[in-house]
Amino acid sequence: MRLANVAGRLVSQEGADLVDVATASDGRFGPDPHDVLDHWDEFMAWAALRPQAGPLVATPAGVGPPVPRPSQVFGIGLNYADHAGESGMALPSQPMVFPKFSSCITGPGTVDLPSDTVDWEVELVVVIGRPARHVPAADAWAYVAGLTIGQDLSDRALQFAGGASPQFGLGKSLPGFGPIGPWLVTPGEVSDPADLEISCELNGSQVQHSRTKHLIFTVPALIAFLSSHLPLHPGDLIFTGTPAGVGFGRDPAVYLRPGDELVSTIEGLGSLTTRIGNAS
To answer: For the whole prediction, is pTM greater than 0.90?
Structure first.
């Protein structure tokens, strides 16, 4: 399945058409894109009887974040070896977890700059579909509602302002710093959810390119690790990490400027366009 939030209503792609879920289900499921995640098993049973999606259609106008109100958003740092290398940091021995506060979540569109040190990070984002606690890695995909594209935008000056106590969560959670979308795609809709091509273009030039098979800690490993420490809830998001090619890893460093455009693409999930607005 491919789901989207269009003008605040949940829609599903059936063939080449976008279908309003509340209308198609005769009110069995409400229009709020987030509410269906609390009834994911019931929704998937209903969806199995509906027409399947065809080839990916163009991003609809008015699209918002496919998960508008996650209760928890986890960021994973240094989860590609090449990004750890460009950051000058050692490979982590366990997942490096930081919060992205949920108020930063937005959909495709424009993000205003709070400073002149804002950087890009394309990421595969996992959407949890079932309550998860102490989940073995072998069972973890069963707890995934879907996958989407994310940008872990980062104000590097704020992120590293604490010196020995960096402000990862704060520097990565300013307004608009968590664009996701445009689609939530169920894992069975892609060829191999563990190995997807991932890339980012800045103003038409490719700045990041890799495959998710290069994640140091895989999606199942992350779900197992996180759920061993705390409960995961339907709609929670995991930003799984970014490959090499970010701005601060360049010499000299490159940061986003008003008028820039980021296009983040993941195989089978479409493309997320983020435009950079004026300084706020």
So the answer is: yes
